[in-house]
Write a structure and sequence with these properties.
With about 200 residues, the chain is of the alpha/beta class. The protein has helices at about 15-25, 70-75, 85-100, 130-140, 155-200, and strands at about 1-10, 40-45, 50-55, 75-80, 115-120, 145-150. It has a 6-stranded mixed beta sheet, with helices on both faces. The protein binds guanosine-5'-diphosphate and magnesium ion (MG).
Length: about 200
């Protein structure tokens, strides 16, 4: 069984818990406890594979932390902002930059993490502060997927969004596997070249 670890990050009150709970239960519950962090588990069958999905929904204070452990833990990220709150867009931007920071040599990733930027609370578009184009541009410039939706009003869209990021994570798993096996093949070739030649010269 494949383990897929997904972190839902973003500013306080952007709807991280609402989106997570909507995906898991198809329900919208107005208020969620925000003072503790949760890891939810869900079994999924996708692309012929049995998946054990873990979703990390941080508590509000945690959003301000260094993120180092989340970056290390997660295979992919959903970054949430609230389209009616410009400051939440700035937080999302900072998070994306942090995720896309060039890796330090000791924690190099073979494949870039999958990231999906979500403009939540689309039902509040009459008080919109962040344009659709702005969100899309931030995502495009940083190799992220993008969508706008409403955890309050849309169940199917929320599900589609989660499935999209999970599929991207699975694609990355395949890429990593490919690189690993071609890496070990070229290592075998190298060893063969070096020792093969030596044997000949003895
Ligand atoms: P979190 O701090 O990011 O986990 O945010 P919550 O999920 O706790 O949501 C914060 C507030 O925004 C709550 O009052 C939710 O009811 C509300 N909320 C979440 N999603 C939506 C949405 O799509 N539309 C509207 N109008 N309110 C939402
Ligand atoms: Mg929350």
């Amino acid at each position: 069984m494949n383990d897929v670890k997904l972190a839902v990050l973003g500013g306080e009150g952007t709807g991280k818990s609402a989106l997570t709970v909507r995906f898991l239960t198809k329900r919208f519950i107005g208020e969620y406890a925000s003072n503790f962090e949760s890891i939810y588990n869900k079994h999924l069958y996708l692309e012929g594979k049995q998946l054990n999905l873990e979703i990390y929904d941080p508590c509000s204070q945690k959003a301000k932390c260094s993120l180092a452990s989340e970056l290390h833990w997660a295979d992919g990220f959903v970054i949430v902002y609230d389209i009616s709150d410009r400051s939440s867009f700035a937080s999302a931007k900072a998070l994306i930059y942090r995720i896309r920071e060039p890796p330090t040599s000791h924690c190099k990733r073979a494949v870039e993490s999958a990231v999906l930027l979500v403009g939540n609370k689309q039902d509040l578009c009459h008080v919109r502060e962040v344009g659709w184009e702005e969100g899309r541009k931030l995502a495009l410039d940083n190799r992220c997927q993008f969508c706008e939706l409403s955890a309050a009003e849309q169940s199917l869209e929320v599900e589609t969004m989660f499935i999209r990021i999970i599929k991207d994570i699975l694609t990355n798993f395949k890429l990593k596997e490919k690189r690993r096996s071609s890496g070990s093949k070229s290592m075998a070739k190298l060893i063969n070249n070096v020792f093969g030649k030596r044997r000949k010269s003895v």
